[in-house]
Amino acid sequence: MKNRYDSNQAQRSINAYPDQPEALSLRVYTSRLIGSEADLVLHGGGNTSVKCRVTDILGEEKDIIYVKGSGWDLGSIEPQGFPGLDLAYLRKLRRLGSLTDEEMVNQFRTHLVNASSPNPSIETLVHAFLPHTFIDHTHADAIVTLTNTPDCEPLLKKVLGDRIGILPFIMPGFPLALAVADLYEKNPAMDCIILLNHGIFTFADEAKTAYELMIDYVSRAENFLAEKTRTKNPVAALGTACPDTDIILPLIRGAMSLADKNGQTFHLHLRQNEKILAALGRADARELLVSGVLTPDHVIRTKNYPLWLDFTHDGNEQQMTRRIADEFAAYGERYDAYFHRQLAAQKVVRTKLDPKPRVMLVRGLGLVTAGETRQAAIIAADIAEHTMAAKVAGAAVAPYRELEESSIFAMEYWSLEQAKLGKGHKPLLAGRIALVTGGGGAIACGIGRKLLAAGARVFLSDINQERLAQVRDMLAGQFGSTMVSSLVMDVADSRSVQQCFSRLIREAGGLDILVPNAGIAHVAKLQDLDEKIFYKVLNVNLMGVFQVIKAATPIFTRQATGGNIIINSSKNVFAPGEAFGAYSASKAGAHQLGKIAALELAPLKVRVNMINADAIFDDAGVSSGLWDVVGPDRMKARKLDPAGLKEYYRQRNLLKTEVLADHVGNAVVFFAANQTPTTGATLPVDGGIMAAFPR
Ligand code: ZN
Q1: What residues have a C-beta under 5 A from ligand 1, the ion?
Q2: How do residues 635-662 score in pLDDT, each as one tens digit?
Q3: Which residue of 265, 368, 513, 673 shows the fewest CB atoms closer than 10 Å?
Q4: Cα of 38 to ligand 1 centre, how many Å?
Q5: What is the pTM assigned to this prediction?
Q6: What is the pLDDT of residues 20-37, one digit of tens each?
Q7: Ligand 1 centre from 122 Cα, in Å?
Q8: Based on the number of CB atoms within 10 Å of its own CB, is 684 exposed (0-12), middle (13-18) or buried (19 or more)?
């Protein structure tokens, strides 16, 4: 591991925060160095601290400890990510024989320098009880790889030297802080403490030294593992074919979601690379990799065990479906047994978490992770990938030794985590995946915006790359780029549709909400309507709807969790206009297809509904493709400018209102959230036009 300390950069950090104590600015600098190293810490893992003497509001000098706050990532931490606490007071807590986690957090909050600070790390007292100015703590892969082996103490001393202290696994919190302080005081020559199945602390009075000790110890472990791997005979590999993701991922997603009593649907994330495939192809892969977490705080993200899926002997989809159902059922039973065993053993009352895996090891395919949010699925994949690499590296040294389940349970069912359950607002469409075709137009802006605001992940597709990118970028700017993706797709071309659906499945695992919205317009009376143009309009407006419904149906079938198709139809279906035959007829055909789909897909609990919108001109600077074609003609016929035309349409409806893309978005969210048991219905979003009342 490279030592990245650079004194110029350190000085720059001091200059960047002129109002902060110099030591805190250096703390920010080396914390970021640690946080940028994924082999040291992942996603908010690890913590660091610094002790400073500062002058308070009364002009009195005080010792303050700044410790990483929860919710901050070391890689991007700022001074305000380090809540400051009264050090002398915290040290007095050592006199107590015991301290519950709840009371400890209360003591932290009541002794903060700044009342609006985040909660300091649960490992704060470890930092406070040690005397050093700078303390660095990570869950370094290479260190836990060595600690997670049987009888590892002689090995740790051999590899890391004799200036280390070693502690068995102890729950983070007050007991760990006492144990660390006692161990250090017995031998103050130590500059590092290794916590088995957990991680490493290094400490010094200079930021640079504490950081360099961390890099040095981790490097020793890494070099030792690399050497062992190099000299060990390679493990036999089994040849495996890659299962078809179009089939497997929706089946897995369905199995994840199906048993959920809250109707939660999950985001899936597929991670595939040579190292992962090689690890999964090892003859001993299942035995080695289906084992517990590297460090217990991963259990919240990944559960303790991954689920093993091997389709080598499954010839068809039916067999794959059965295998997934069986493996999920067995996993759930093992999880339930663990939960009840530990409830009885620890004599506590806890709310059971859902018993489904978060990490699936699919031989021949890769890591498939699941999360209630997309971010959670990605975090689980990052952790799983590091875990896999660590277990493979460790296999060259000794068998893997996982942490006993009582400690895993204590972490997974930690009272402070349990207290968070059921709190916090869950968006209406959390966990849902949506595809909106015609994604480069005004109405798609409104639909995408409202779906994203309701918590769905949104794929936008369009044949026009430029317009698509414009809408995607706008929505990504508002909702973050992890939640909105784009697919260049021609809805009229079945091959293009199939390719895009395959990509969508690989990226998200499945689909819940399909919004056929792509449409084109052409103004011509029947006698002037060119046959080729008519076919083109039919191909997009009618066949395009057919193609995407056809492509989505196997996904809905495999997931078996229901779904929604919401067709952006048109007021023209009920109230056609002259010189608009190609559009009105093709839209009427699509509308009828929607009703047929409602009949055919009801057994799958897929609802199909239509929205008849009218006169939506633009949204956030994105024009409507329809009005780009129709507008000039209508303006000419009525001798109006663009503003006049909008006003004309506003006055035409019963409510005298302007119809916006967001209104269509609201209607889509209403249907997608299954607010009423409705299918085959038409909802007008047009301000009220009597001629277009559904009948
Ligand atoms: Zn830790």
Answers
A1: 199
A2: 888 898 988 988 998 999 999 999 999 9
A3: 673
A4: 15
A5: 0.93
A6: 999 999 999 999 999 999
A7: 9
A8: buried
